[in-house]
């Protein structure tokens, strides 16, 4: 549904100016709506620049949760009251309808219900389904995807593929070929379960597979580039939205200093992009440019164009 709100902003004449904000809330992707809200705040106000911005947002979220809890507690009593009213009133209403009202209601009510409810539902549903199918998928809890025949999860270093097989399957009946850019897995005498090009190259010597509880083939793929999130495991499969990937920040302390610095840089750049702010590399270039301009005041940069 469409949500429209207005934000007040002081103009040069000290009178409040109303800025329109328009966004469409998709119930299956509420985070996308919140990203647009933060983008709007970043463009039209200095709220996100405040040191206490994250704390204030967290307080607002807690307050909203408390309101929902209170509403839920009130609604627990309401259904019981409604059922009691229906049980007492229905017998009286039915007797009256049989005598005088029924013939009139059948002729007048049916056309209004059919014309008012059927038309908008048939038009809106296909559009919503097309949007979901065309856009990237929200990753699962393991930053991967759950597909029909298998599922996969990932961190920056590895991808783990889990393929369910009939209980009692043994290793000698499994066919698994792991190449630098391709993966083929299946059972002997049957069509492959996975047979396609990998999203990115792997290190075959550091990859392996095994059977878990004789009902699951688990494959570990070591990424060649260990600083990139995969959008899919095998090319052609649905892709995830890597901007919604959630790194395991609690395990950053286990990384070596160089890798930890790179991961923290990626997380910072991801937050900056979501808020429409410059990344670390862009900030560094800006600082170098400012330093160069300050060291050469005799040069005129007024007509210069920078990429």
UniProtKB/TrEMBL annotation:
<dbReference type="Pfam" id="PF04969">
    <property type="entry name" value="CS"/>
</dbReference>
<dbReference type="GO" id="GO:0048448">
    <property type="term" value="P:stamen morphogenesis"/>
</dbReference>
<dbReference type="GO" id="GO:0051082">
    <property type="term" value="F:unfolded protein binding"/>
</dbReference>
<dbReference type="GO" id="GO:0006457">
    <property type="term" value="P:protein folding"/>
</dbReference>
<dbReference type="GO" id="GO:0048461">
    <property type="term" value="P:flower structural organization"/>
</dbReference>
<dbReference type="GO" id="GO:0009880">
    <property type="term" value="P:embryonic pattern specification"/>
</dbReference>
<feature type="region of interest" description="Disordered">
    <location>
        <begin position="80"/>
        <end position="145"/>
    </location>
</feature>
<feature type="compositionally biased region" description="Basic and acidic residues">
    <location>
        <begin position="122"/>
        <end position="134"/>
    </location>
</feature>
<feature type="domain" description="CS">
    <location>
        <begin position="145"/>
        <end position="234"/>
    </location>
</feature>
<dbReference type="GO" id="GO:0009555">
    <property type="term" value="P:pollen development"/>
</dbReference>
<comment type="function">
    <text>Small heat shock protein required for the establishment of auxin gradients and for patterning of the apical domain of the embryo. Involved in the specification of the cotyledon primordia. Also required for normal inflorescence and floral meristem function, normal developmental patterning and thermotolerance. Acts as a molecular chaperone.</text>
</comment>
<dbReference type="GO" id="GO:0010450">
    <property type="term" value="P:inflorescence meristem growth"/>
</dbReference>
<protein>
    <recommendedName>
        <fullName>CS domain-containing protein</fullName>
    </recommendedName>
</protein>
<keyword id="KW-0963">Cytoplasm</keyword>
<dbReference type="GO" id="GO:0048833">
    <property type="term" value="P:specification of floral organ number"/>
</dbReference>
<dbReference type="InterPro" id="IPR037898">
    <property type="entry name" value="NudC_fam"/>
</dbReference>
<dbReference type="GO" id="GO:0010286">
    <property type="term" value="P:heat acclimation"/>
</dbReference>
<dbReference type="InterPro" id="IPR007052">
    <property type="entry name" value="CS_dom"/>
</dbReference>
<dbReference type="InterPro" id="IPR008978">
    <property type="entry name" value="HSP20-like_chaperone"/>
</dbReference>
<feature type="compositionally biased region" description="Basic and acidic residues">
    <location>
        <begin position="80"/>
        <end position="109"/>
    </location>
</feature>
<dbReference type="GO" id="GO:0009965">
    <property type="term" value="P:leaf morphogenesis"/>
</dbReference>
<dbReference type="GO" id="GO:0005737">
    <property type="term" value="C:cytoplasm"/>
</dbReference>
């Amino acid at each position: 549904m469409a949500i429209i709100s207005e934000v007040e902003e002081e103009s040069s004449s000290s009178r409040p100016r109303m800025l329109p904000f328009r966004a469409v809330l998709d119930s299956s992707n509420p985070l996308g709506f919140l990203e647009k809200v933060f983008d709007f705040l970043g463009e039209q106000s200095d709220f996100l620049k405040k040191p206490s911005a994250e704390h204030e947002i967290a307080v607002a979220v807690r307050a909203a949760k408390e309101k929902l809890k209170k509403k839920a507690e009130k609604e627990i009593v309401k259904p019981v009251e409604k059922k009691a009213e229906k049980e007492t009133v229905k017998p009286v209403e039915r007797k009256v309808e049989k005598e005088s009202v029924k013939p009139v209601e059948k002729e007048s009510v049916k056309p209004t219900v059919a014309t008012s409810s059927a038309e908008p539902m048939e038009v809106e549903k296909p559009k919503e389904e097309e949007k979901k199918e065309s856009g990237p998928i929200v990753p699962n809890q393991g930053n991967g995807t759950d597909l029909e025949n298998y599922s996969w999860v990932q961190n920056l270093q590895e991808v783990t593929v889990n393929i369910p097989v009939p209980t009692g399957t043994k290793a000698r009946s499994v066919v698994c070929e792991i190449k630098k850019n391709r993966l083929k897995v299946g059972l002997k005498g049957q069509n492959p379960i996975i047979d396609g090009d990998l999203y990115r190259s792997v290190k075959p010597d550091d990859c392996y597979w095994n059977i878990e509880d004789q009902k699951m083939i688990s494959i570990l793929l070591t990424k060649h580039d260990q600083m990139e999130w995969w959008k899919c495991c095998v090319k052609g499969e649905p892709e995830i939205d890597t901007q919604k990937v959630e790194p395991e920040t609690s395990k950053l302390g286990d990384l070596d200093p160089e890798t930890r610095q790179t991961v923290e840089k990626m997380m910072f750049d991801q937050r900056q992009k979501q808020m429409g702010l410059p990344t670390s590399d862009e900030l560094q270039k800006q600082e170098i440019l400012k330093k160069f301009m300050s060291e050469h005041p005799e040069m005129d940069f007024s007509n210069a164009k920078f990429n």
